[in-house]
Amino acid sequence: MVIGAGSIGIFVGGKLAVAGADVTFVGRPRLLDEITESGVRLTDLDGGDDALPVGRFRVATEPDDIGSADLVLVTVKSAATAESVRELTGKIRPGTVVLSLQNGIGNDTVIREILPHCVVLAGMVLFNVVHHPGGRFHRGTEGGLAVQDDPALAPFLGVFQQAGLALRRYPDLRPVQWAKLLLNLNNPINALSGRPLREQLADRNYRRCLALTQREALTVMNRARIAPARLTPLPPAVMARLLTVPDGVFRRVFGRVLAIDPMARSSMADDLELGRKTEISWLCGEIVGLGAMVGLPTPVNQRLIELIVAAEQGDRRTWTGAELLEQLRAAHASGR
């Protein structure tokens, strides 16, 4: 069962259904009505194209049938974690595997506190999914699924493998989560830019914004003795420095980073467009909170929070790379 059937949830759950799993999508009527009418089509930047016709999956707006689920994937936005999971209490079977496939740090802890009798595991989706009309969900970047390893996953490894989503298992997922958080610090920059990811990352000024944001994050992580995993061709600290090289050099040396579908955007950009609250508190907010914990200022990440909150409240505008860089440099210089 997929709790929070948005783009990520429908793509992952859909791939599992194509591989033969019995899948129920639980989510908002907007998407559920669409896929109930059109079915689901799953494509990717590598040429994959799978059709999941109506009748090969179930949909529900409430997790009423959760008691029959062997595996629950939680893919709601972080702000909705507690509320969504509370709906499972008293219905879900003890011992059920609950896998959090969410951005940020600590969603699994929230779930575990609410469902103490389940096997709750942390996970990360390391790719981007773009929703197109007519029930099409497109994986627009490279990446797979990373999960906290546990013997309880054994019955599900085969279907994930068959679905083309082999689980990368880690004894401790926290370094991977912090590394993914570093990458996700680009989400607010992309949302404020109003551009697709590939176009935004090809612009040096936007990359300078990301470099400022990541370097600040790495400084507080280092003070907190957090060592993020390596998810990019080079270690995180090196990548943060090299983001600032000229555009032509970046394209030649880091062309793989730009191997992104031309239409792919961050989920935060989609949230702003749909008038939804973003996950900024679980991205830049994690860095600000960690900085406060270790006694270091985080003005760059704080400024990004302010700009995104303003956009959430209706102050929407498209920032050029130069304009946004000026904002973040001023915040960095102030050290507030």
UniProtKB/TrEMBL annotation:
Listed EC numbers? 1.1.1.169
Pathway it acts in? Cofactor biosynthesis; (R)-pantothenate biosynthesis; (R)-pantoate from 3-methyl-2-oxobutanoate: step 2/2
InterPro entries named among the record's database cross-references: ApbA, Ketopantoate_reductase, KPA_reductase, KPR_N
* Enzymatic class: oxidoreductase
Q: Tell me the Pfam families matching this sequence.
A: ApbA (PF02558), ApbA_C (PF08546)
Q: Which GO terms describe its molecular function?
A: 2-dehydropantoate 2-reductase activity
Domain Ketopantoate reductase C-terminal, by residue range, is 172-310
User: Which reaction is recorded as catalysed by this protein?
Assistant: (R)-pantoate + NADP(+) = 2-dehydropantoate + NADPH + H(+)
Using the record's annotation, list all stretches that form the Ketopantoate reductase N-terminal domain: 2-148
Q: Which domain of life is it from?
A: Bacteria
Q: Mind listing the UniProt keywords for this protein, alphabetically? A: NADP, Oxidoreductase, Pantothenate biosynthesis
Task: Tell me which family the UniProt entry assigns to this protein.
Answer: Belongs to the ketopantoate reductase family.
**What is its biological role?**
Catalyzes the NADPH-dependent reduction of ketopantoate into pantoic acid.
Q: What is this protein called?
A: 2-dehydropantoate 2-reductase
Which source organism? Nocardia iowensis
